[in-house]
Amino acid sequence: MSTETDVLVLGGAGVDTIVYVPELPLPFADGYTVPRIETRAGQTGDFVAVGVSALGLRTHHLDMIGDDHHGDLVRTLHRDRGIALTEVPLPGGTKRAVNLVGPDGRRLSLYDDTRSHEADRLPEEKVRALASVSRHAHVSITYPCSFALPVLREAGMTISTDLHNWDGVNPYHEPFAHQADLVFVSTTALADPERTMRQIVERGRARTVVATAGADGAFLLTDGELTHIPPVAPPGPVVDSNGAGDAFASGFLFGWLAGEPPQRCGRYGAIAGAYACTVPGTRMDAISRDELLAREAELAKAPAAQRPGGAEPAGAGA
Q1: How is domain 5-23+35-313 classified at the architecture level of CATH?
Q2: Burial grade of 21 (CB within 10 A; 0-12, 13-18, 19 or more)
Q3: What pTM, to 2 d.p., does this model score?
Q4: CA 240 remoteness from chain centre
Q5: Alpha helices in 132-243, H assignment, sequence order
Q6: CB count in 10 Å sphere of residue 239
Q7: DSSP 297-309
Q8: Extents of the domains making up the chain
Q9: Which of 2, 117, 266, 276 lies deepest, with the highest CB count within 10 Å?
């Protein structure tokens, strides 16, 4: 099948308001003076689209967007980055969130879930047409993307998704977890990450599951074996963790779609995620292909004992 798109990103378009606060959690007070408050386009699907595009993959983004100022920010982002965008009207208005960012780069995201409604759908004909000319789909867990999963599966393409801070129980995430070939999830809310990762494989289609653990790196389950992906040192001061998980997914996808070994894909993800932590959340910068490959080459030359991404077995309940 000839394709014109490497990665079709579904969902996750929106606008964040970034607020840098003196500490997290933020103690109650009548008011705070903060260094900056800025509203910019960029939620999970936008970050992945920017990330894989910066790595040289032909990218197309499909989502529901409001006919409003915030939707204009999303449209401008894609136009300025040269990323194809197919938008469907979202009657409730463009999705929004407020992100509080502490001095150490940690963030607290407040997501407005009133923008989507039960009747919202990505038109099946649009999904089918884009899927027919795309190699791979990365599906955000934003509503109503789960309804598009059967169409993507019928098209015969591979699918990835990011469950973010799933607790391993909430049924909303299950269609994504069980229909994707490659699943990302954060360990943040998981009582037993290894158990959840293995259940995703047992109950769904995934053969590879990656659980990101922030500064502790990530865990990779593939072919039944669980290994640890050590973290990579950021190339500069850590200022903001916004988009780090999406950057990790973008780097991993870059390697995965190129047929690279899973551990190398993990190093790509760790490198991209570390880079993202050095970028203020008010910007939408992603690591370039040349920089990613150069950094990975440096790590590959390091002694095995010091090499991030080595096939290091992970303990139970990692």
Answers
A1: 3-Layer(aba) Sandwich (3.40)
A2: middle
A3: 0.91
A4: 15
A5: 149-154, 174-179, 193-203
A6: 17
A7: HHHHHS-GGG-TT
A8: 5-23+35-313
A9: 266
